[in-house]
TrEMBL record:
<dbReference type="InterPro" id="IPR029001">
    <property type="entry name" value="ITPase-like_fam"/>
</dbReference>
<feature type="binding site">
    <location>
        <position position="68"/>
    </location>
    <ligand>
        <name>substrate</name>
    </ligand>
</feature>
<comment type="function">
    <text>Pyrophosphatase that catalyzes the hydrolysis of nucleoside triphosphates to their monophosphate derivatives, with a high preference for the non-canonical purine nucleotides XTP (xanthosine triphosphate), dITP (deoxyinosine triphosphate) and ITP. Seems to function as a house-cleaning enzyme that removes non-canonical purine nucleotides from the nucleotide pool, thus preventing their incorporation into DNA/RNA and avoiding chromosomal lesions.</text>
</comment>
<keyword id="KW-0460">Magnesium</keyword>
<feature type="binding site">
    <location>
        <begin position="150"/>
        <end position="153"/>
    </location>
    <ligand>
        <name>substrate</name>
    </ligand>
</feature>
<dbReference type="InterPro" id="IPR020922">
    <property type="entry name" value="dITP/XTP_pyrophosphatase"/>
</dbReference>
<comment type="subunit">
    <text>Homodimer.</text>
</comment>
<keyword id="KW-0479">Metal-binding</keyword>
<feature type="active site" description="Proton acceptor">
    <location>
        <position position="67"/>
    </location>
</feature>
<dbReference type="Pfam" id="PF01725">
    <property type="entry name" value="Ham1p_like"/>
</dbReference>
<protein>
    <recommendedName>
        <fullName>dITP/XTP pyrophosphatase</fullName>
        <ecNumber>3.6.1.66</ecNumber>
    </recommendedName>
</protein>
<keyword id="KW-0546">Nucleotide metabolism</keyword>
<feature type="binding site">
    <location>
        <begin position="7"/>
        <end position="12"/>
    </location>
    <ligand>
        <name>substrate</name>
    </ligand>
</feature>
<feature type="binding site">
    <location>
        <begin position="179"/>
        <end position="180"/>
    </location>
    <ligand>
        <name>substrate</name>
    </ligand>
</feature>
<keyword id="KW-0378">Hydrolase</keyword>
<feature type="binding site">
    <location>
        <position position="174"/>
    </location>
    <ligand>
        <name>substrate</name>
    </ligand>
</feature>
<comment type="similarity">
    <text>Belongs to the HAM1 NTPase family.</text>
</comment>
């Protein structure tokens, strides 16, 4: 059966492709190039639902959408839902994490804790809606390292990565443990009926 992945972010398409293939190879994940709704929610759940509802309505297929970001404890959870445009320039990953490192420049361990959050909404046309969340805990590095992944990966030191940043993990290593993988793990039982 088929499910629409409602995202315009090529990195998310790649990661979900690998995560879904590993657990539900029978599920065909199709892309979404329909109208992009205004993401004006103030929570990950609201934004994920906005994107999944739009795609389900437009395609008539079950749709899932990920809304994600990095939440830094000492910043009260920011950038959070504003992660994609923290430095004011949407999609400018390097400026975003450089600003974040600046903001944390006076903060030493153990106060650099942060979480990557992935909230996935599943919307079945004319049917149910579900929201699940996956969290990946770690700390902010003091300087970027690594060339894999995207977004804030070069400045995030996951607790389970032996001191490497997320951008120093292989795609397979990241996809085995990331916030996105954990959210999909919670979603998988709900997809069993599809
Ligand atoms: P769509 O809304 O089309 O899915 P987007 O990139 O705008 O794409 P979000 O609004 O959910 O998606 O923004 C998520 C941002 O959070 C993303 O641009 C990155 O800056 C950051 N982010 C999310 N997951 C990440 C990950 O696995 N590694 C590094 N940064 C991540």
């Amino acid at each position: 059966s088929r499910i629409v992945l409602a995202t315009h972010n090529a990195h998310k398409v790649e990661e979900f492709g690998a995560i879904v293939a590993a657990t539900r190879p029978d599920l065909e994940v199709v892309g979404y190039d329909g109208p992009e709704p205004v993401e004006d929610g103030v929570t990950f759940a609201e934004n994920a639902l906005i994107k999944a509802r739009a795609a389900a309505a437009h395609t008539g297929l079950p749709a899932m959408a990920d809304d994600s970001g990095i939440s830094v404890d000492v910043l009260g959870g920011s950038p959070g839902v504003f992660s994609a445009y923290w430095a004011g320039h949407r999609k400018d990953g390097v400026a975003n994490y450089e600003l974040l490192l600046d903001q944390l420049s006076d903060i030493a361990d153990p106060h650099r804790t942060a979480q990557f959050v992935s909230t996935i909404a599943l919307v079945v046309p004319g049917g149910e809606e579900h929201v699940v969340t996956g969290i990946w805990s770690g700390r902010l590095a003091t300087a970027p390292a690594g060339g894999n992944g995207f977004g804030y990966d070069p400045v995030f030191l996951p607790d389970d990565a032996d001191g490497r940043t997320a951008a120093e993990l292989s795609a397979a290593e990241k996809n085995a443990t990331s916030h996105r993988a954990r959210a999909f793990e919670a979603l998988a039982p709900l997809l069993a009926a599809l």
